[in-house]
Amino acid sequence: MFNEKIGIIGLGVVGRATLTGFRCFGYDVWGYDKDSQKTECAEIKEADIYFICTPEQTVENVVSQLAAKFEEGLVVVRSTTPPGTITELQQKFGRHICHNPEFLRERNALDDFMFPDRIIIGECCKEHGDILASLYEHFYVPIIRVTPTISETIKIVTNAWLYTQIEFWNEVKDKCEALGIPPQVVANAVTMDPRISKYGSMMVGNKPGGKCLPKDFRHWKNIGLRHNAK
Asked: Among all residues, which ones are annotated catalytic?
């Protein structure tokens, strides 16, 4: 039985789903948020594992606070971060830091947490990867253990692909309307091909929304610019 004390820092959509989901399995979990209306405790307490679920721009600040306040405890970033960020944080703060990306939809966050299609663990080392793997042993889905940089890339590629599908089908809509034909009839026929996902075609006319898809698509494009890759 997993008996580590878990702390969730950041109780937005991701943090709340993570906290509630772990509690459903009987884990000892506390939750902290700087918003007094959301937090369960007055300050960040000691834990064996700290899950950071804050906006990505505040991740480094949270890691810094943890490093200054607690000598022990595994830090796990759930936030989406550009590839290489976790490695840089490890080097800067001298802490064990893993990456465990979420794939949650805002309106179905808890269901998506409880019934994932896979778990990605970007492990800093085998020892801490084993700890996270044991935490998720009740989920009975593939657990993919990789480096933190690979984990960060998996998350960004996932969202960039979803964004691309929606944008592509919006382009189809515009061209169909220019031709005077119904775009959904075209989409329905095209997606009968098993190689073509229905995801974007179901959202024809809607721009990629939420906080993540546009942001992560920009991250993906910026990776190419930074590394001179097309």
From this structure: 212
Report pLDDT for 194: 93
Q: Which residues contact 15 (CB under 8 A, 6 or more apart)?
A: 8, 9, 31, 33, 51, 53, 54, 78
All structural domains of the chain with their residue ranges:
5-146, 153-226
HSE, CB side, 13 Å, CA atoms: give it for residue 84. Answer: 5
Here the tokens at position 75 are 């830090």
- Summarised one tens digit per residue, pLDDT across range 36-72 is 889 998 999 999 999 999 999 999 999 999 999 998 9
Domain 153-226 in CATH 1.10.1040.10? yes
3-state SS string over the chain? Answer: CCCCEEEEECCCHHHHHHHHHHHHCCCEEEEECCCCCCCCCCCCCCCCEEEECCCHHHHHHHHHHHHHHCCCCEEEECCCCCCCHHHHHHHHHCCCEEECCCCCCHHHHHHHHHCCCCEEEECCCHHHHHHHHHHCCCCCCCEEEECHHHHHHHHHHHHHHHHHHHHHHHHHHHHHHHHCCCHHHHHHHHCCCCCCCCCHHHHCCCCCCCCCHHHHHHHHHHHHHHCCCC
Contact 87, 77 (CB under 8 A): no
Q: Render pLDDT for 166-210 as a digit per residue (tens, 0 to 9).
A: 888 889 999 999 999 999 899 999 999 999 988 888 776 666 666
**5-146: CATH number:** 3.40.50.720
Is the CB of residue 96 less than 8 Å from the CB of residue 74?
yes
